[in-house]
Amino acid sequence: IKLRLEKQTMTIFSAYAPQKGESEEMKNNFWAAAFSKTISTIPKSKTILIGGDLNGHVGKKTDGFDSN
């Protein structure tokens, strides 16, 4: 999505990365081809807001949240 805010254009980019258990090839294709290639088409002078589920994990476990 591109938004024009006064004299500035902001690009909002939403992505869903392959999840745990998917092949390394699929993950590499996403990061190298889909994500990086798309981001590189946006001029550096423009503001980019990236959101979505990029499948990062917080903490030692990757199988959910602790109840504590």
From TrEMBL:
<dbReference type="InterPro" id="IPR036691">
    <property type="entry name" value="Endo/exonu/phosph_ase_sf"/>
</dbReference>
<protein>
    <recommendedName>
        <fullName>Endonuclease/exonuclease/phosphatase domain-containing protein</fullName>
    </recommendedName>
</protein>
